[in-house]
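Hey L., structure's done. Input below.
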Amino acid sequence: MRNLTSRSEFILTGLSSLPQLQIPLFVMFLNMYLVTWVGNVCILSAIGADVRLNTPMYFFLGNLSFLDICYTTVTVPQMLVHFLEARKTISFNGCFLQMFFFTFFGSTECALLAVMAYDRYVAICLPLRYATIMGKGACTGLAFGSWASACTHSLVQTSLASRLSYCSSRQVEHFFCEVQPLLKISCSDTWINSLLLTLAAWAFGIGSMLFTLVSYVFIITAILRIPSAEGRRKTFSTCASHITVVILFYGTAIFMYLKPSSSNSQTQDSLISAIYSVLIPMLNPIIYSLRNQDVKGALRKAMRMNVHAPL
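Output:
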């Protein structure tokens, strides 16, 4: 069979094949993308405008907001174009470039959420040592490690996938290029790819989730030891937003990557992917701004500065 990888395009099936849904889906995802940009830019502006937010927790939140902007930009603009086109194609190089950045940003988010859980653990369980442990160098190192490890993982996955032969079919059963759907249409032996993908899912997905859960076991135990109800409420409020984001992200991502292969459904997989790649990045700034008084105060301050800024 001929190897088509050197000169072919891939055909994406899209989120829906029904013509009557293309325009409504275009409008819906365009609005979600704009809200994602506005919300995360507001979070970044608030952190930059208020010196009270120059703390490790908000340093990591700034990383997460920047990441969510990048994460959605990898897939949504092309998805919007495809809603308006009958033939949904992507070039070979464009497909693997999209795969690299999507895997990169998704893995980084897993690592960052675990780092943010560690930050809350140190702040609540080791408050007297917090400033020493979570110094500027440590925070920079943790953030850099999250981005660097995810980049390495993504390079390996993308490099291996780009070397496969795609000669049996060019139709990717997804609305963007992701590792799993591409492995399904390859006529090469993909056991190494599948093995590394499973190991990465356990390392970045299950490993990060378990680390986060263990951190919160210690955090909740420490909170329950606080004698006053008001003290417990205030302490828990500092990590409530993070818990909500963790549940949303890991709940959908783990279900997507670790469900039994017998339960695979292209429509189901696409909907789940849309949740964790588009919906959750849109909800993250809303969750953090609604449940955090410091962020809301900083947002009001940033808006006042913009209003009174000279033209």
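The chain has a mean pLDDT of 85. The chain has ten helices and three strands.

-- N.
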